[in-house]
Amino acid sequence: MKALQISDVKTWKRIDIPEVGKPAAGEARVRVHRMGVCGTDVGCYLGKFPFFAFPRIPGHELGVEVLEVGDGVNNIRVGDRCCVEPYINCGKCDSCVRGLTNCCEHNQTFGVMCDGGLTEQVILPANKLHPTGSLTYDQAALVETLAIGCHAVDRGAAQPGQNVLILGAGPIGLSALEFARLAQSNVIVADVNAQRLEFVADSMGFSQTILLKGDDSDMEAIRKFGNGRLADVIVDATGNHHSMTRAFEFAAFGGRVVYVGITQNDLQFAHAPVFHRRELTLLASRNALSGDFTRIISLISEGKINTDPWMTHRASFDDVIGVFDQWIAPGSGVIKAIIEVT
After folding, report:
1. Out of 49-53, 137-141, 264-268, 313-317, which region has the weakest mean confidence (pLDDT)?
2. Which CATH architecture has domain 2-131+310-340?
3. Are the CB atoms for 338 and 317 separated by under 8 Å?
4. Do domains 2-131+310-340 and 148-284 have the same CATH topology?
5. Per-residue model confidence as pLDDT tens digits over 17-58
6. Secondary structure, 3-state, 64-118
7. What angle do CA 228, 180, 238 make, to 5 degrees?
8. I need a surface site. Which of 10, 178, 335, 341 has the fewest CB within 10 A?
9. Domains of the chain, residue spans
10. Model confidence over 68-79: pLDDT tens digits?
11. What is the CATH number of domain 148-284?
């Protein structure tokens, strides 16, 4: 079978791999139709993502078709169109036993810690496949991105009327925007990239945006949109250690800061004058839960999440190597690139 592999830093390699075998009990064989490209894939390609080693076949945001199921599989049938919950958890560790499957102590994220879906067919645990009904394969590939934002907003426990500040208007920030709006919060989106904020306004119909300048005007802008107050919940989706450190400054007293972006840099922040004095809460947000996937499928099906603005770029499997560097270049305008695998 054809596959695309990231063989080294900024190096793609087209390879042939053996055909997959028959699925074992509890497994399914699926055909990969679509793959969404996300920041994780870009970080892996650039050699900047933790938990990743070369060489690796990427692909964890997937729209797939069920071809064959193993014994004991009841949640899916041959022919089903599905999205993939790519966090392959052990089911036995303390985290899994407590229902925290998203942060399994032995997690193997498909396409990051093990070879993924940028190939024709793969075998997956059947319980990681969620039937998507009438959704397109493009939409199915978008579910995992949305799930990351869903979990982050849930971690922050955003409530109706509360000020929710989202730092970073990339795909994860935009997914958090979707769920903060569904929570009926007063949402504000901030970024240092004017082009991304224009996308938020023009394509997503959202006007409460702030182009961060790194000075006191940022606080004034947050108070302007926040009815004179700072943010009750901050979701930092930048993965930038400077932004993650400064996020505390934007929090109201008793506020909650959620880190959904990832950095390998050390973080330093003022404890007594800001974090302690305001009695802030810091939360990490990793991956998503199974229930997030089924919820998102329903929301898209019901028209409560409009996926049309998301898919900004597209390429066939054969064209990926030629266009990938263009997709990740500054100013490319990519929000979500979709690869047509088969």
Report:
1. 49-53
2. Alpha-Beta Complex (3.90)
3. no
4. no
5. 999 999 999 999 999 999 999 999 999 999 998 889 999 999
6. EEEEEECCCCCCCCCCCEEEECCEECCCCCHHHHCCCHHHCCCCEEECCCECCCC
7. 85
8. 10
9. 2-131+310-340, 148-284
10. 999 999 999 999
11. 3.40.50.720
